[in-house]
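Data availability excerpt. The first of two example chains:
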Amino acid sequence: MSIIGWILVGLLAGIIAKMLMPGRDPGGVILTILIGIAGGLLGGWLGKVIFGVDSIDGFFELSTWIAAIVGSLILLALYRLVAGARHRH
C-alpha cells in the first residue's frame, strides 16, 4: 500500500477510534491522523506477532481496517492515560 493509502486508512481509522471512544481529548485532527496511522502499523504488527497472520493485505481488505482500528483504539487509550496523568499534575 502506498503512503497515501496509509494516510487515508490512518485518517479513517483514527476517526472511527474517536467515535468508538467518545470524550474530550486535547488533540485535534492532526493528532487523530497520526494516532490512526501509528495504530494501523501497531495493529498490523500485533496481528502478525500474536496471530501469525499478514493482517495488512491491502486498502480494501477487512483485516487491514480491523487491525488499523484496533491499533488506533489501543493508542488512543494510551494517549488518554498519559495526557490525563500530565493534565492532573
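And the second chain:
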Amino acid sequence: MSPLSELTDVVVELHSDLAEWLGSAAPPKVFDRFANALADDFSSVVTTGDAVDRDTLLAGLWSAGNAQPGLSIEITDVEEIVRAPRLVVARFVAENHLGDTVTRRRVTAVLRTDGQLYSWLSVHETPIPATGSTEATPPAPT
C-alpha cells in the first residue's frame, strides 16, 4: 500500500467514525475509536476560527451523539503535503451530507506516526463556500 493510500484510509476512517457517532445511535466504542485516534496534546481550529483542545472537542462530541441523524462525511482530494520520519501533514476536503444540506471544508491536519500507527495532533478547518456563492471577492491590491 502506498503512503498516500494509507494516509487516505486513516483520514476516511476517522471521519467515518465521526459521522457514525454524530449521525446514528452508535455504541460508545465508536466514540472511543475516534477519541483514541487523537493525541493527548491534540488541538483544532474549527470553522469559526476558535481553537479548541482535545478535552473540549471530545466533551462537545460526546454530548452530540446522534444529534445529526443520517449524517455522512465524504473525504476527497487527500494530499500529503509533508512527510518526515515521525510526522505527516495532510490536506483534504471533507464534505458533510445531511439531508439536502452539503457543507464543505478544506482541512489541514498534522499527524504523528511511527510508520504503522497514526495519531492526530492538529486540525485546521476552513469552510469552502457553496458553488455559485454570492460571497464577495476581495478587492485586488492597489
